[in-house]
User: What shape does this take?
Amino acid sequence: MNKGVLTFFCGKMGAGKTIKSLEISQKRNAVLLSEDEWLESMFPNSIESLEDYIKYSGRLKPQMKKLVQSILTTGTDVVMDFPANTIPQREWFRSIFSEIQAPHELIYIDQPNEICLEQIAKRRKEQPQRAATDTEQMFKLVTKYFVEPTANEGFNISVI
Assistant: This one.
């Protein structure tokens, strides 16, 4: 049986990963999994710092990996709105698709900092619950860890 395609994203905070993941999941009739939604549902009001995010995201990943592999094995495409912004994050995605030999696509949304910051400011207004974490300070902090994907990592990369 053919495996579903795993689609995941790389892009700075505010680059548009969530919007693009929604678009692609609808276009491909794929299951969409959002890290933000899962974290808020499983650990409500727990994430107020980068350390909190790392802790709770780490708790979510083992079960999420099993879920995604199970869905892909049925032949259903999965779009993950989880960041693939660092090499260790991308290695986690690699473990998901490579262990079950599923096809994948890494979409890199390459946006300049100014656009990301504008979009983060807009998001704060539209989603007041994110005002505490969606700040210029948080953008600068997480962007320090951002690593652009390169061809030698061996992913099927599409750049937007």
Q: What stands out?
A: The chain has a mean pLDDT of 95. Strands lie at 6-10, 31-34, 78-83, 104-108, 157-159. The helical segments are 17-28, 35-42, 50-73, 87-99, 113-126, 136-143.
